[in-house]
Amino acid sequence: MTNRYLYLMRHGLACQRGVTDDFQKPLSALGQKEVQAQTDRFRQPDGIRPDCIFCSTAVRARQTVELLSELFIGTPIFFRESLYLAPAFRVLDLIRETDSLFHRIMVVGHNPGLEQLIPLLSASTITNFLSKCKSFYYVVTLKFNLQRKSFLF
Predict the structure, then answer these.
(1) Phi, psi (rounded to 5 degrees) for 96
(2) Most buried one in 18, 39, 90, 93, CB count within 10 A?
(3) Contact between 140 and 129 (Cβ < 8 Å)
(4) Model confidence over 97-140: pLDDT tens digits?
(5) Which residues are registered as beta bridge partners of 143?
(6) What Å distances lie between residue 69 and 9, 75, 95, CA to CA?
(7) Cβ burial 57-86 (10 Å sphere, 16+ → b, else e)
């Protein structure tokens, strides 16, 4: 069996003032601090080590990945417009289409799609994920033991 990991990461908190186009909203000062506060989790010996990263092209998602990029030197980052406000099925399709050589995939995107994806892929739901992620920056790790070569299913 092969262990595969899926890391789902909501972007940091977006700035709510001054920008009316949702796609163009940057991270707020608090959002930047939220992302930077998570770097310790990534640096731990058993921390998050993605083989590849898929990221929404929205400004706040790109900024989230950029703030963490020093931790992922050499890790391919793929920006996908299709992840902007993507529903769960679209994120799942992207994961299914990912090359089976990648065993640790990170997706940086938006709610409610990421929140909706969690119970589809896990045996239990994560309570209040949406409400917590509106105010704070979180990463959810899902581990799969697979016999097949595809990442999921």
Answers:
(1) -65, -35
(2) 90
(3) yes
(4) 887 788 899 999 998 899 888 888 876 444 444 444 444 456 77
(5) 5
(6) 14, 9, 21
(7) ebbbbbbbbebbeeebeeeebeebeebbeb
Instruction: Extract the tokens encoding 24.
Output: 């163009």
Amino acid in position 95: I
Place 41 in a pLDDT band, splitting at 50, 70 and 90.
confident
One-letter identity of residue 82: S
The verdict on pTM exceeding 0.90 is no
Distance CA 148, CA 1 (A): 8
Residue appearing with tokens 């595809």: 150
Count of Cβ atoms closer than 10 Å to residue 89 Cβ: 12
Two tokens, residue 23: 């796609």
**Strand ordering across the sheet containing 2-10:** 77-80, 52-56, 104-109, 2-10, 139-146
Strands (E), the chain: 2-10, 52-56, 77-80, 104-109, 139-146
Tally the C-alpha atoms within 13 A of residue 81's C-alpha that lie toward its C-beta.
1
